[in-house]
Design brief:
With 181 residues, the protein is α/β, with parallel strands linked by helices. The chain is 23% helix and 40% strand.
Length: 181
């Protein structure tokens, strides 16, 4: 079992808000006058997703949202290397632009399995937006088309990011100093 000893501030609410606005404007510009299906990868991306689609929607009303639940993590801090999809999207993506919105790309395993699946389903385009491009444990090459922040290492919580389902509700992002209990 992992216990949090300390939470160190990493990205403030203000910094997150500013970056989300920039990402939303860029995505809206890239998809100007085009329909865009934004897919929230649950659960971690829910806060980021909500803020990003609002920012996109300010500039581009041709927006559809859907949800996917997938993970390569168990209850700990490292990847299990097995991708589980427990909730698939409800809409047909054939011929549509799809943008996955993720909380953090760490190992890259989850999205490296999901993106090809949506290309096989006939999506017009498939891109990835991630709040955090975390490179410490990257195991597979993955293209992040829209990255909020780049983090070389550290275990982070808050703004949707969790440790065994806890700390998601924090409004900013913190580095969690952990110890094995």
């Amino acid at each position: 079992m992992v216990k949090v000893k300390q939470l160190l501030p990493l990205y403030t609410e203000e910094a997150i808000s500013r970056r989300v606005g920039e990402l939303g404007a860029q995505i809206a510009s890239d998809y100007k006058d085009q329909e865009l299906v934004c897919v929230c990868v649950l659960k971690g991306a829910v806060f980021f997703f909500t803020d990003v689609v609002r920012a996109i929607g300010l500039h581009n009303p041709e927006l559809i949202i859907d949800f996917l639940r997938a993970s390569s993590y168990g209850s700990g801090t490292s990847s299990s290397n097995v991708v589980k999809i427990t909730k698939d999207v409800d809409i047909d993506v054939k011929g549509r632009n799809v943008l996955f919105i993720e909380d953090v790309i760490d190992s890259g395993i989850t999205m490296s399995r999901i993106i090809p699946m949506f290309k096989e389903r006939g999506a017009k385009s498939v891109k990835l937006c991630a709040l955090i491009d975390k490179r410490e444990r990257r195991e597979v090459q993955i293209t992040i088309d829209y990255a909020g922040f780049v983090l070389d290492k550290g275990f982070i919580v808050g703004y949707g990011l969790d440790l065994a389902e806890k700390y998601r509700q924090l409004p900013a992002i913190y580095e969690a100093v952990v110890e094995e209990a």
